[in-house]
Amino acid sequence: xxxxxxxxxxxxxxxxxxxxxxxxxxxxxxxxxxxxxxxxxxxxxxxxxxxxxxxxxxxxxxxxxxxxxxxxxxxxxxxxxxxxxxxxxxxxxxxxxxxxxxxxxxxxxxxxxxxxxxxxxxxxxxxxxxxxxxxxxxxxxxxxxxxxxxxxxxxxxxxxxxxxxxxxxxxxxxxxxxxxxxxxxxxxxxxxxxxxx
Amino acid sequence: xxxxxxxxxxxxxxxxxxxxxxxxxxxxxxxxxxxxxxxxxxxxxxxxxxxxxxxxxxxxxxxxxxxxxxxxxxxxxxxxxxxxxxxxxxxxxxxxxxxxxxxxxxxxxxxxxxxxxxxxxxxxxxxxxxxxxxxxxxxxxxxxxxxxxxxxxxxxxxxxxxxxxxxxxxxxxxxxxxx
Amino acid sequence: xxxxxxxxxxxxxxxxxxxxxxxxxxxxxxxxxxxxxxxxxxxxxxxxxxxxxxxxxxxxxxxxxxxxxxxxxxxxxxxxxxxxxxxxxxxxxxxxxxxxxxxxxxxxxxxxxxxxxxxxxxxxxxxxxxxxxxxxxxxxxxxxxxxxxxxxxxxxxxxxxxxxxxxxxxxxxxxxxxxxxxxxxxxxxxxx
Lengths: 197, 179, 192
What we know:
The complex is a heterotrimer.
Chain A: H1 2-24, H2 28-31, E1 35-40, E2 44-46, E3 50-67, E4 70-89, E5 98-102, E6 108-110, E7 133-141, E8 150-154, E9 163-168, E10 178-185, E11 192-196
Parallel strand pairs in A: 1-9, 3-10
Antiparallel strand pairs in A: 2-3, 3-4, 4-7, 5-6, 5-8, 8-9, 10-11
Chain B: H1 3-32, H2 34-43, E1 46-50, E2 56-58, E3 61-72, E4 78-89, H3 92-95, E5 100-105, E6 111-112, H4 120-125, H5 127-130, E7 146-156, E8 163-168, E9 174-178
Parallel strand pairs in B: 1-9
Antiparallel strand pairs in B: 2-3, 3-4, 4-7, 5-6, 5-8, 8-9
Chain C: H1 3-33, E1 39-41, E2 46-48, E3 52-62, E4 76-86, E5 92-93, E6 99-101, E7 112-115, E8 124-125, E9 131-139, E10 148-159, E11 169-184, H2 186-190
Parallel strand pairs in C: 1-11, 3-11
Antiparallel strand pairs in C: 2-3, 3-4, 4-9, 5-8, 6-10, 7-9, 10-11
């Protein structure tokens, strides 16, 4: 009697185990995702390859920037988030090219491509070990995704298992949205000027 | 064939298979990671220390560091290091088709890659060096030619015991380390 | 297990497998012989394409591209205005293959997609920030600009684990809808 049940029971058990394993297999994107190194706005965040600190976060409805001697106004259907930070390489010369604004609803907003050629933007300059450099970032984000967001910074968007700085942005309030932020060209040690109106 | 004989044969095959796993598994891992291991071995580099001004034979040429100058940097608390070096070709065929990698290292293990364009300080202090090409143009040379090269680096002022490393892809893992 | 039982098992699985393969093949042949027509939607009707919700608004033709700067040598642009709302969890470009002219026009380059609000080439579109956009095709000079335009709206499907790597991602699928537009002529462009 017991013998006749044993076979089907083993099959059922195996099926249940396989189903459980299939359900709980981590996604490929989880296996190969970068390793987060957490920190907060206003403090230095150290990964093994680079260090970064976020100082100011400006919010604006519009950004004016001079490019090729001409002032251009950049509108957005959300809010402009302009971030001033500083970064340095630690052991080797490197570039930080990936920055994302992770909103409280889990959406990853990429850097706005419309200001990507401004001096100081990620990828415009290589970082040298021991020389901290100012870094500018610009995002266009819906108003609901401003507070409670995290800034993700990495050397590049797809580097499996490399470290990524996760910086909690604490100082953003919707009532601080300015009408215009004006970006200008600066000098060698401070590549841009920023004026909020 | 009796039942016991068949069982014995089956059992022997079973144990043989289990024993074979001990050999086959490591072999499979080795084959699959073969490239990674080779790369890892390549990274275990083997420096050839060269004193400043001395000639050193490497990858079909005689190499010499002709200058390692520290110039003021355009950023505060930085310096520009200008490295000038030359290679006298001995075996053009061996030298050609090499990729060249240059880096500046310090006593804390930091590594700077060369700047693509020389800083303004280089143009001001050593205009001749600013016109010298980067390391890597070894096509169409003949025996006895001297290739003059220069690379500049932006380093923090506090960087000490700087050394220039030059590696050619064909001659790895050996590389030159000029002090 | 006896030889006879073994043979029987092999026979049954063989017949079953063959039957399954034959059924699947027959279904594929049937599908290919009776293609499902795409649904035709009216202009200004939102279409769920999977990754995007697309609302095609209107079409026009004219010499001035959405940048507002007329090229030095005269060209004709066929422009389609549409809204796109990114439904995924990440910023993405509106792919040029989202809208395709049907039937295809030979030698037609891919369109450039601009933001309607400021005439800039559209970069990534964020989720939660729907945008009005203009796709502009540079029309071949040999052809007269069309009076009507039929567009196929492509779709994408999200796979949590794809068949090759088990990675999650968006994959192109067949067009979900077609939209027919009348193209307003160049005169309308002059008032802009």
